[in-house]
Amino acid sequence: MLNQMTITELQELIQNRYFETDSARGIAKTFLWLTEEFGELAHALAKFERGDPDIANLEEEFADVLAWLATLANITGIDLQKAIENKYIKDGGPEGVK
Predict the structure, then answer these.
(1) Using an 8 Å Cβ cutoff, are 41 and 65 in contact?
(2) What is the pLDDT averaged over residues 64-70?
(3) Which run of H or E residues covers position 97?
């Protein structure tokens, strides 16, 4: 079994593999890729909801969305681990229903 990956490790993996091409593509075009991946995830979730799940594809689409989100964070200089800690952990996190 593989070791658990932290958010920081995921972001570093994506940066090491793709930063040069991602930063050259720019924010707007990268965001379009992310939205395309959300569409593919929506399609996979719809199949799951209909009772015709393709779990391997669903896993891939979740992974793709996370990777493209990490890409956007990398090219904008956002540390996702820090952002999540600040938003959801620091001072007990936000109150209310999410």
Answers:
(1) yes
(2) 98
(3) none
